[in-house]
Amino acid sequence: MVKKVVIADDHPLFRAALKQAIRKISANTKIMEVSSLSETSSILLNEKNIDLLLLDIHMSDSDGFAGLIMYKQAYPLIPIVIVSASEDSKIVKNAIDFGASGFIPKSADLSLIREAINIIFNGQSWWPNTDSHTLHKSVSQQNSEEISSLFLTLTPTQSKVFMAISEGLLNKQIAFKMDISESTIKTHITAIFKKLGINSRTQAVIFAKDLEKNTKQEY
User: Fold this and answer.
1) Same domain flag for 107 and 123
2) What's the CA gap between 132 and 176, in Å, rounded?
3) Domain-ending residue, one of 122, 137, 152
4) What is the C-alpha separation between 17 and 72, in angstroms, rounded?
5) Burial, 21: exposed, middle or buried (Cβ in 10 Å; 0-12, 13-18, 19+)?
6) For the packed helices 201-218 and 144-152, what is the interaxial angle rounded to 10 degrees?
7) Given a cut of 50, is residue 50 above it in pLDDT?
8) Per-residue pLDDT tens for 100-137?
9) Where residue 180 sits, what CATH number does that domain have?
10) Are the C-beta atoms of 165 and 207 separated by less than 8 Å?
11) Same domain, 158 and 100
């Protein structure tokens, strides 16, 4: 079956790099290149069964996550991966919160871009390690049983703290909500991160989204 991929980016060289990476993974792919949000909207309206949208958040007629938000509402089944020259952790977190399936920095080399796209083609997600300038595989590459098993190792209190973290609450807010000290919250977070094999709040959000996805699949 022919895969359909839309590359929405106003930098021809990076579009070429993405196209090359996709061709290495699957030669049997229809790749549509556009350089603006309006062109992207036109393709999504007229083309059926898009397998992947690679979306730059800064183009001539868009600046920010408006395109991602709009397309996730209109086409919830299309995986959308953000590509950006910025690797700011806040931007990555926003991409996660707004429903992106991944985030590829433009600083990534061709082999890493190829690996990331391949992972996303297989229904998983890929996020940058914002503590360095390389890509890493996200916790979402664990299978559903592993994710569920890891979550079940948390105590009831740790589970509540984890869910509060995934909702974006700060330590002080969690402490107030649960009526315990902030230092106790910090202790719980350290234990939670160790049990789940994560090391940041961004990864906690990813883990929570994957847990929710797996729970829905079970039912």
Assistant:
1) yes
2) 33
3) 137
4) 25
5) buried
6) 110
7) yes
8) 888 998 888 888 888 888 888 888 888 876 543 343 44
9) 1.10.10.10
10) no
11) no
For residue 140, what is the DSSP state? Answer: G
E strands present in the chain: 3-8, 29-34, 52-56, 58-59, 62-63, 80-84, 102-105, 126-128, 135-137
Strand order in the sheet with 102-105: 29-34, 3-8, 52-56, 80-84, 102-105, 126-128, 135-137
CA 196 to chain centre: 18
**Would you say the pTM of this structure is higher than 0.90?**
no
Same domain, 200 and 185: yes
Report how far apart, in Å, the C-alpha atoms of 179 and of each of 114, 161, 168, 169, 186 are.
Answer: 47, 12, 18, 14, 14
Instruction: Write out pLDDT tens, residues 140-173.
Output: 455 566 788 888 899 999 999 999 888 878 889 9
pLDDT of 217 reads 54
The identity of residue 44, as a single letter, is: L
The tally of CA atoms less than 13 A away on the side-chain side of residue 25 is 25
Query: Per the structure, how many domains does the chain have?
Result: 2
- Tell me the residue range of the domain where 13 lies: 3-137
My answer on whether 126 and 166 are in the same domain is no
- In the prediction, which pLDDT does 136 show? 42
Number of H helices, E strands in the chain: 10, 9
